[in-house]
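Proteins fold reproducibly. Next comes an illustrative record:
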Amino acid sequence: MNRRTDQAIALTTIIAVALIPTAALALVKVGGGFDAGRPSESSVTPVTENYPGAPKPAPMPTQTQQPIALPPIPSGADPAAPPSSQPPANKPLPAELTSFKRYVGIARIDSSGATSTQEEALFTMKPRFTMTATTTEYVLKGQKWKPTGVTKVVIKNRVKATRHPDGTVDKEPLTPEEIDQLKYEADPRTLTRNIKNVPGVKKSRDPKTKLYKYVVDLSAGENILDKLPPDVMELLPKEAALLGMKAELHADAKDHTFFAALNGATVVNALGVGVIYAEMK
């Protein structure tokens, strides 16, 4: 892989992680914090020197480097707010969660420019499965991200309602079997267990955070991307499966994913995907 590709991967890694609201990033910190969306001293830091896809990481933005402005944080998100729903170390998460939030940030860079997708979703697993997800699409114009459309999906009472960017609404009834499948796919443990089954995955444990790290150094995109929840897969461009991908995932002993990142690039395009599960209880 040449220097240009390394730099593209590093840039995409930083952008994809930064697209996720900084309030969500704060939820995975351990003994550290985040400053204006940039990770500071932390044992679980999304962008580090040995971060997959970033063998030669680009320096973090400074006041003098004129970094590209990122899409706005959703209203109500407070980067300084403490992770109130994060369980203390002596109170592990239950195996089957009651509810959680999932944040997804996706960045795509190619010869035509840069686009991104930012999604915030709330899942309730019991007593009845519900989901509310808001997805915003952006395109990079100069140094600023411009929103191009917002899609909202609500699943409740076995009905899936989708409001498209043009304002039209589709409603689809769901069977009990489809609800069960959605619950399985949404469960944070499913992503961990899928990544654990990728050939060549490496596993390690951080004694300080007590989190397990799973790393896939390099694999065909189709071997990794199909491990993602299907609704996240739908947000990705079809050609992503053709990229060589690297992946990193952090999870607890019960397989609940806290943070996952997938990155891939060629000399002409790059893709970065960041997924965070937060407020798990």
About this structure: Residues 3-19 form the longest helix (17 residues).
